[in-house]
Amino acid sequence: MIKKENQTIEFKQNWRDEYLQYVSGFANAQGGTLFIGVDDNGNVIENVLENSVETSASLAKHFGVNERTIRRDLQFLQAKGIIRRVGPDKGGHWEIVGQ
Asked: Model confidence over 54-86: pLDDT tens digits?
């Protein structure tokens, strides 16, 4: 679990262009962080936790988005140090950093 949402932290399970309003709001205020791939309670997407070898195609189907969205969200989580990929694309798995 990450922190709780507040004036500088916002959680979204996947990216939608309408979330640019949060980025704009953070830029016009004291700053903030928009976490993609995290539910409203601060939990990293359950599928990544429960099935670390799940493919981007199966995650896309589960969440009703395209694979590109899943790959972008996973890259975002990696860049923020929330998850990391262990092993190769085929045969590797995801790990939640610090859990």
From this structure: 677 877 777 677 888 888 888 887 887 877 888
Q: Of 41, 80, 74, 37, which is closest to residue 57 (Cα–Cα)?
A: 74
Asked if 50 and 68 count as a contact pair (C-beta separation under 8 A), the reply is: no
Question: CA-to-CA distance for 41 and 44, rounded, in angstroms?
Answer: 9
Give the integer Cα–Cα distance in Å for 34 and 13: 11
Q: How does DSSP classify residue 35?
A: E
Determine how many CB atoms are found less than 10 A away from the CB of residue 78.
Answer: 14
What six digits make up the tokens of 23? 């980025």
- Segment 23-47 shows an average pLDDT of 73
Question: Between 95 and 71, whose confidence is greater?
Answer: 71
| Domains, the chain | 9-96 (1.10.10)
